[in-house]
Design a protein that fits this description.
By secondary structure, the chain is α/β, with parallel strands linked by helices. 43% of the residues lie in helices and 23% in strands. A hairpin with a 2-residue loop joins β4 and β5.
């Protein structure tokens, strides 16, 4: 799996320049966001780590998502996604965090749609929360790769342009 070198270099540069750290909570991207961070120059200076929590039980156990709430939406919703980065940031003690949830294959629970929610948080606040939708014929790995690139592109913009948030 290859990622845009320019994109990875920029994220690495901005996080190091700001002297801030990041953590990741993934579901639909199955560790690809963490893989991308591991490929960034000097990742050990800003990437604290992450969790790939694919099931409701793991999201509840490790990311402190409410079980009933997660069960009511089959573990995938914007509100679940918005909780995940806030909780992973607390767990890893980072200023920045990213979370992804969604479906990379058409299944009954998603009404046969392929989509992902992602959220980016900074210092305990969600600063971006979006949904990405793809054609139902998109192959699973292609969907996961696309979701990852979108999230990383959005992060690069946020880290570069964020002024004083609070």
């Amino acid at each position: 799996m290859e990622f845009s070198k320019i994109l990875l270099d920029k994220i690495s540069y901005y996080l190091r320049e700001r002297n801030e750290k990041i953590s990741v909570a993934e579901s639909v991207t199955s560790g690809l966001v963490q893989l991308a961070f591991s490929q960034m120059p000097s990742a050990e200076r800003f990437f604290e780590g992450g969790i790939t929590a694919y099931t409701i039980d793991q999201k509840v156990r490790h990311l402190y998502i409410d079980f009933e709430k997660a069960q009511s939406v089959n573990r995938v919703s914007r509100s679940i996604t918005d909780e995940m980065p806030l909780n992973i940031a607390k767990l890893f003690k980072t200023e920045w965090s990213i979370a992804t949830t969604g479906y990379s294959t058409p299944v009954r629970e998603s009404d046969n749609d392929i989509f992902a929610f992602y959220a980016i948080s900074y210092k305990g606040h969600i600063i971006l929360s979006e949904k990405i939708e793809l054609h139902t014929l998109t192959r699973s790995l292609d969907a996961q790769s696309y979701f990852t690139e979108c999230v990383l592109s959005a992060l690069r913009c946020e880290v570069k342009h964020l002024k004083l948030f609070l």
